[in-house]
Write a structure and sequence with these properties.
- The chain is built from six helices and no strands.
- The chain is mostly helical and 98 residues long.
- The model has no long low-confidence stretch (mean pLDDT 89).
Length: 98
């Protein structure tokens, strides 16, 4: 059910590519705590700072990279958990666009 709600959200955001949609959903639902905070963000559009990965919260990431959408912020928290060194480098480098 949660995956369906996220898919609906992505569709409303204009994302049409089914492979990209599936990839984003798979990533943001990988960890129950991150998934829960993203679902709460979808409802309120407010970042919940009770979850900290490494030293950063969702609000911290959004302040550093305001161009990231909500799903981008929470997927970056997944990156911080999975690949902390690479994610920290991305933050240090100012979130370079590739």
């Amino acid at each position: 059910m949660d995956e369906y709600l996220i898919a609906q959200f992505l569709r409303e955001q204009g994302l049409k590519d089914p492979k990209l949609k599936a990839q984003l959903i798979r990533k943001v639902t990988k960890y129950p705590d991150i998934k829960e905070k993203f679902l709460a963000w979808m409802e309120s559009r407010a970042f919940d700072d009770t979850l900290k990965i490494e030293e950063w919260t969702a609000s911290d990431i959004h302040k550093l990279a305001p161009f990231l959408t909500g799903i981008g912020v929470y997927n970056f928290l997944v990156d911080l958990r999975d690949n902390p060194d690479d994610a920290r480098k991305c933050i240090t480098d100012g979130f370079p666009v590739m």
